[in-house]
Amino acid sequence: RTAIYQEPREHSWVVRWTLQDELMNIYETLTGPEGPAYNPFWYRVWEGYIHSAYVQTVHYRYNTPLVTVPQSGQLAEVTLPYTQAYQYSRNEGWQLHYRLYYETNHWITDIIEGPDRQPWYELTSEVTDYLINYVPASHLRPIPPEELTPISPEVPFEEKRLEVSLGRQFLTAYEGDQVVYGAKISSGQGQKDVPVGTRTPKGEYHITSKSPSKHMGSLSASGAPGSYSLPGVPWTSFFIYETGAAFHGTFWHNNFGVTMSHGCINMRNEDAKWLFRWVSPTYEANIEDRSGWDVRGYGTQVLIID
C-alpha cells in the first residue's frame, strides 16, 4: 500500500491508502521540499500527493494484431497498465492466471481466437514450453529487430566495462576512459551477501547471459515470506551465474537510488534496455528458433565497488 498525502512530504496528513494496481491520473511531477534526498520526486494526483517510490507511470497504447507469428516466436511488450492473462484447458475452459504489467516482455508463439472472438496471443514462458498464457493481441507491441541491435559494437571487447557503486547506488558505463552512460540503480538489501543474504556482493564479474524476457522467482508464488513470481522481467543481463544476480528492468518499484532488491541490480526499463544492447555477448535480433531466446558467453566486465 502507498499513501496519498495532503502535501508532498511524508509527515503530512494521510488522505488515504491506495490499493494494489490502482490506476490514477498524474497531473504534475514535483520535488518534495523534504525529499527524501535519494528520491525526492512526488506526483500530484486527484486527492493530494503520492511519493514516486512505488508508482509506475503507464500509458494505454493499443496495437494492431499480427497476422502470423514466426516459428521462432516474436518478442513483444505490454503497452497497457496491465493485461490479464488466462490459461485454457478443455476440462476447465478459460482460467485467470498471471497479471502481466506495463513494459514487461513476453514471447508470442501463436495467434488464436480468444473467448471474446478477437485475436489473442499465445505466450510461452522461456522457462518451460508447458507454461502457456493467453492475452488479447491488442495489448502487446511486437518489438522490431532494430530495437535489439547492438550499441557501439565497433568498440573493442576489452574497452567496455560497467562500474556499479553500491554506496552511490549508481551505474556507469565506460568505453575506455570515456563515460558513455550513467543511471541510478537499486542493488540488494541486507547485511549479508548473496547467497547467504540478499546484499549484492562486491567484486569483479562478467556478463554471462542475456535474455530480453525472464520469469524470475517461482512459477507461482506461494504466499510465503519472500515468495514471488515475476513473469516477463525485461532486458535481463546476468553477471553472477551461480546466484542468478542480474541487471534488469523493474516494474514493481520506482525507488532507484536506494537498495531494494534480493541481490540483482534493479534498473529503469529504458536503462536496462540500453545496457542489454550495449554489453556483450551480442544478442541476435533475427533468431532462427527458440534457442535464440537467450544468449550466453563470456561478456562485458562488471565491477561492483563501494
Write a structural description:
The chain has 306 residues and is mainly β. It has 3 domains: 3-54, no CATH class; 74-143, SH3 type barrels (Roll), CATH 2.30.30; 148-305, Beta Barrel (L,D-transpeptidase catalytic domain-like), CATH 2.40.440. It contains 1 helix and 22 strands. It has one helix spanning 269-278; strands at 3-5, 14-17, 28-31, 41-45, 48-51, 74-78, 82-89, 93-101, 105-113, 119-124, 132-136, 140-142, 160-165, 170-175, 178-184, 203-206, 209-217, 229-240, 245-249, 265-267, 295-296, 301-305. The chain has a 5-stranded antiparallel sheet with strand order 2-1-5-4-3, with no helix packed on it. Strand 14 (170-175) and strand 15 form a beta hairpin. The radius of gyration is 20 Å and the shape is globular. The mean pLDDT is 96.
Descriptive tags:
single chain; 3 domains; 5-stranded antiparallel sheet; 41% strand; mainly beta; L,D-transpeptidase catalytic domain-like; 306 residues; SH3 type barrels
